[in-house]
Write a structure and sequence with these properties.
Layout lengths: L27 H13 L11 E6 L5 E3 L2 H8 L4 E7 L2 E6 L3 E5 L4 E6 L9 E7 L4 E6 L5 E5 L3 H4 L13 H10 L4 H6 L9 H11 L12 H20 L36 E5 L2 E5 L10
Parallel strand pairs: 2-9
Antiparallel strand pairs: 1-7, 3-4, 4-5, 5-9, 6-8, 7-8, 10-11
Helix pairs in contact: 1-7, 4-7, 6-7
The protein binds a DNA duplex (16 and 16 nucleotides) through loops.
Length: 298
DNA sequence: AGCGTCACCCGGACGC
DNA sequence: TGCGTCCGGGTGACGC
């Protein structure tokens, strides 16, 4: 029934010698880039101010809350008022309630003009009053959509926003020292800090010159400040490049050309020339420079 | 309670 | 051609 008119992706999977035979999820910079594009409009008009006529749901398990039937009924005739981001969630404030979308591994959201050919992985389509369509495509089907009166049911569990002014080195210090966890999985824990995934965690630790296996309570204040700065540097660099485009969907960002460690195993460290290593930490591929991020002292 | 580990969801790409 | 394996984020089960 659906015709695949999606052109094959350019070969962007072997940029650094390491083969990217898998997708990975959009993180804070990618989600922020999508939010900004929808908010401002690009080739299409801004999403705020648009009203939803109806919705098509091709993969009902995407709808996390409420039930699919209730979702379908409640989303009708809703007006988009704001598009924001919290952690890796897109937050759509409506005239009644809030819709949250988590893209997980392979999700993407685009606002397209009328009669745009269907994409192979379009799963949920919001038909708007002016006949533009907001399309949620998701090859891996791991994405989640919520429609809530109180978005804090979901967003309330999230840790601080790393780019907020309220996120200071001291806040980070108190959170790190309260725990006794390995840094890499702790930074990816969305209740500890919101928005970091595998790529930006590895990049942040490299900027901070910290080994991914360090214990959270072993850091001194200088190291904590370096980590705070590293997190912000990695995210800011990603944002400046409109995120990375090594997913199933090309988003226009080009940060993948600027990774310091992610996907660069076997290649020389840009600071010292040492071969970048790849290890598994908490079931996740983890890239680091054994010289620059050397001391593990657990 | 806190922490680590593992299976699961899913499907494209790869090795054999 | 086809099967098994791998990968990823988040969740939930389980064990220490």
């Amino acid at each position: 029934m659906l015709v695949d008119l999606t052109p094959p992706l350019p070969s962007i999977y072997s940029l650094h010698g390491e083969l990217y035979n898998h997708p990975h999820m959009p993180e804070l910079p990618e989600v922020e880039t999508i939010a900004q594009t929808l908010r401002r409009g690009n080739d299409s008009p801004p999403l705020p101010g648009q009203r939803i006529k109806r919705v098509t749901i091709r993969w009902p398990r995407h709808i996390a809350m409420p039930s699919v039937t209730t979702f379908r009924r409640r989303i009708r005739d809703r007006l988009f008022s704001e598009v924001n981001r919290r952690g890796k969630y897109l937050v759509f404030a409506l005239d009644r309630g809030t819709m949250l979308i988590h893209l997980r591994m392979s999700g993407d959201l685009v606002l397209v003009p009328p009669d745009t050919p269907a994409g192979r992985y379009d799963r949920t389509v919001f038909y708007l009053e002016d006949d533009h369509e907001l399309r949620f495509s998701d090859a891996r089907k791991f994405g989640k959509i919520f429609l809530l009166d109180d978005p804090d049911i979901v967003l309330g569990k999230l840790g601080p926003e790393p780019l907020d002014a309220s996120f200071t080195p001291l806040i980070l210090a108190s959170r790190l020292l309260k725990r006794r966890r390995i840094l890499k999985p702790l930074l990816m824990d969305q209740t500890f800090i919101a928005g970091l995934g595998n790529i930006y965690t590895d990049e942040a630790l490299y900027h901070a010159r910290l080994h991914p296996l360090r214990r959270s309570d072993s850091l001194d204040m200088n190291e904590i400040t370096a980590l705070w700065q590293g997190i912000r540097d990695a995210l800011t660099l990603g944002l400046r490049h409109s995120g990375a485009s090594i997913d199933w969907v090309y988003r226009g960002g080009d940060f993948q050309h600027h990774f310091r460690v992610y996907g660069r195993s076997g290649e020389p460290c840009l600071k010292c020339g040492t071969s970048i290593e790849r290890i598994i930490v908490g079931q996740r591929g983890t890239h680091f420079c054994p010289t620059c991020q050397g001391e593990v002292n657990v």
